[in-house]
Structures are given as structure tokens and as C-alpha cells.
Sequence to fold (246 residues):
Amino acid sequence: MRRALDIVGLIAVALIGCDAGAGKGAADAVDTRPPLVCIANVSYECACDSGAAGRRRCIDGFTFEACACGGADVVAPADTGAPDVVDTPDTGDTGDTGEPPDTTPGSETVTDTETVGPDVDPSALADCTPKGTFGGHEYLLCPGSGWVGAAAQKCASGGATLVRGDSAPVLGAIAATLTFEVWVTAQKGAAGWTWDGVDPTPSWCAGQPDGHFNGLPNAVCALLGPSGCLGDAPCDTIAAGIMCQR
Fold:
């Protein structure tokens, strides 16, 4: 039997049988869309060869750009009496307009400190409630609910991600703060389930994943509930809670 539905305000949006004029019933509708891998134009954390964290942008929902691991900042040369040189804006940073020129002669430099990727506004998560710091990351529960893409966009707007869960104990600590299910970054692709965290074997609830969610097909995204285990769910036909990790 499918696990009890304990999502507060969980909305099942049935896409099955929507073409009534064609005479198709619920049993005839088949979701043939490919599984969602990532959210287009959202920046995700990735691992660099040095062990440091970088960022990579989702191109079209299915592929990523190469992991941007940073490098030497572009620096303006020392003042020589001529007009100062201003840093070139970051490639891909739509809100970066360049730093102002130096105003005092000398050996000053202008250093670009922004990272490649979309600008973020920390105040975008001001309406979210801190639920604790586990495994070195802060977790915030945001009001309302949404499909996985809207949830990811909400977190990304404030420089955060959906729950990644660095280990089973961390997932357990997060779950203890919940009263309903929230989206996590586990997703199923052509190669099977992938987990954007350190633990390669997240703890699934009994009978999960089974590819369905209360009768809805194409369950290729995942939810974390108060029990501390994961269940699969469709990415874009239900709304679940939004918790961000930063």
C-alpha cells in the first residue's frame, strides 16, 4: 500500500485524461516526457578537482555546463596616471556591471569578487524559517508549496539549493524538524537514481522507489518526510514543501 500522504496542502494535479475531446480515459494517458534532470538556468553546486566546491549551470533541463571552479580574478593594473582599468564583468553573471575605477593614484587594484552564475539576493529567503544547522549547512523551511522546479527556483534566488542531505544522520536530523514532506535533490535519470549529496545510498521508505505516487506515473523526483526516509514522486504534477539548504 502506498505510504500515508502526510503532506500539508499537498496538491495532486492530475494530468491524466485531460483531452476529453479525444475520448481518452485515465488508463489511456501516458506521460512520455523524459525525466527532469535539472532546472534550466539554475546554478547547482559541483565538486572541483581541488576538492573545493564550484558551480555549474543547468542549460536546458537535461544537461549542465562544465563545473566552474574559479580561477585568478581579473585585476586592474597599478595606477600610472592614466585612466584606471575596470574589471570585465563576469561571463554569465547577468547582474554584474563591473567594478568602479580606482580614485586615488598609487598601486591600488580592482578585484572582481563575484562568482560566475546568476546574481542572488539573500533577502529572497527572508520569509523562510531557520530549522537548524546540520553537517555544516543551514536549513530553512519556506512558506507555501510548489512543484520541484518552483521550489528549486525559490532556493536558488537566495543562493541556496534544495535539501541535498550529506549523510543519513543529517537527513534524520532534518526530518525531525518536519511535519510534512519536502523536495530533495535526488532524481532519476537514464542511468538510474542520482543523489546530489555525499551519501550514495539514501534511505528509501519501505517499497520505494516504485515509479508512482498515489496513482500518478513518472515518479522521478524524491521527497523527504518526517519519518526520515525518501519516497519518489512526479516532479511537476504535485506540490510539496520547500526547504532550502545553504
Remarks:
- Residues 148-157 form the longest helix (10 residues).
- Confidence is low (pLDDT under 50) at residues 1-29, 72-76.
